[in-house]
Amino acid sequence: MAAKKLNMKEKYRLLTRDLDWEFSYADRKKAFPFEEFEGIKITDWSKWEDPFRLTMDSYWKYQAEKEKKLYAIFDAFSQNNAHLNVSDPRYINAIKIFLTGITPLEYQAYQGFAHTGRQFGGVGARVACQMQSLDELRHVQTQVHAMSHYNKFFDGFKEWTHMQDRVWYLSVAKSFFNDARSGGPFEFLVAIGFSFEYVLTNLVFVPFMSGAAYNGDMATVTFGFSAQSDEARHMTLGLEVIKFLLEQHEDNVPIVQKWIDKWFWRGSRLLSVVAMMMDYMLPNKVMSWKEGWEVYFEEAGGALFKDLARYGIRMPKYAEQIRKEKEHISHQTWWTFYTYGQAAGFHTWIPTDEELDWLSEKYPNTFDKYYRPRWEYAKKLEAEGKRFYNGTLPQLCTTCQIPLLFTEMDDPTLTAHRCSHYKGDQYHFCSDGCKDVFEEEPEKYVQSWLPVHQIYQGNCGGPGLPEILQDYYRFEMGADNMDMKGSPDEARWKQWKGVA
Ligand code: FE
Ligand code: ZN
């Protein structure tokens, strides 16, 4: 008699439930040593609702189909020299940020989910983390392949793996993931699975992928879509972990709330680079950062937190602060990169007159009052041949590692600066949010590898900034950094387009 064919649900049950075993001679708690140390209480793993419902064989089939289509498009892109179709060579700098800043995070997500999955007593959670881990490794690979084409024609791509461990602004993104990965397994899932994947991911993928589409970069659009179909599964895992933790035990509620407060704040700080990309780096603009924040966080996130209120979860602690910041952070961040254009691994520029008008229109409350005059002044200096570069290194925030470039939101001409003391040393922060995170776990953050502090301690070569940039960061001076205007990238572009 032929064996009965199993349906998907039964297959998945066999994979996630029946493959587990009882520990007859070993202590189960010793097998999962991290499951309890965060104070989280799990009473019944069988209540875990599997978010993916995908068996291994169907996972491989489904992913392989996607890969085939994706690589066909990469090949076509490359054969047709499709980099010549982008709107403007300035656009490529947004992609340099993606490869150097975001792709290494995908790799950290791969490592993080692989480690985290191992720590759970429940098989459903273990398998879900394993699959997400594989997805993240695929994201690294497809991004590297998509961007390798640009590496043949533009500067700023080739040293991305070397730069990840050294360059000051890349340390921001790196420290975000290091923080999550060195937390316990449940904090990792709340940080990455819920706060980042479920609530904030649209603010990374939508701007970059719509930005790519608006600016003629079909390779990036295609890997973006391919990654986003995985993202839908990741978001389900993020939401499941929150509901599961909150339903398991009421003692979990304050712990989860604390993590939500922390990771929303850290996430919003990390997104300041996306804010500047949307407002300043895309020649054809999609929407302003402020509009993106309103659509993808205030509306979508607002509804989500209304839903979570029945568990006793409230809005993230600094939501009100972040609401005010949407008017300012893109301008403050791009201004910092422009004035440190020699220390950035991509090109910077002053917005065109048309772009300044667009910013005035999109930010009627703040742009003309606080930011437009600076750009007008920078234009005047540049016209006089006195392009301004900041030659001193900034104080960094011990938690988010961003230079103290943000202001008080109620007084946008005053730099925000907070301090805390721990075991006789003083630590500096960009905000109340970052100070709170530090004070919750000072032993963790006193270990932060802060690039500027390391430079001043002589640990990054030197003694001068040019040697550090060249030898320690491996920046090709004048090619990878400084102004777009007059760069080899620009010269090549003009030659290809016959406008030299
Ligand atoms: Fe990913
Ligand atoms: Zn900070």
What keyword list fits this structure?
binds fe (iii) ion, binds zinc ion, two-stranded antiparallel ribbon, globular, mainly alpha
| Biggest β-sheet strands, sense, barrel | 2 strands, antiparallel
How would you describe the shape?
Answer: globular
**CATH topology of the domain at 62-340, anyone?**
Ribonucleotide Reductase, subunit A
The strand count comes to 4
Q: What pattern of helices and strands is seen along the backbone? A: HHHHHHHHHHHHHHHHHEEEEHHHHH
| CATH hierarchy class name of the domain at 62-340 | Mainly Alpha
Please identify the structural class as seen in this structure. Answer: mainly alpha
- The CATH architecture assignment of the domain at 62-340 turns out to be Orthogonal Bundle
Q: What does this molecule look like?
A:
The model has no long low-confidence stretch (mean pLDDT 94). By secondary structure, this protein is mainly alpha-helical. It is globular. The chain has a domain at 62-340: Ribonucleotide Reductase, subunit A (Orthogonal Bundle), CATH 1.10.620. The chain is built from 22 helices and 4 strands. The longest helix has 31 residues, at 218-248. Strand 1 (407-408) and strand 2 form a beta hairpin. A two-stranded antiparallel ribbon has the order 1-2. The protein starts with 7 loop residues before the first helix and ends with a helix. The structure holds fe (iii) ion and zinc ion. Fe (iii) ion binds at residues 106, 109, 136, 139, 227. Zinc ion binds at residues 269, 397, 399-400, 402, 429-431, 434.
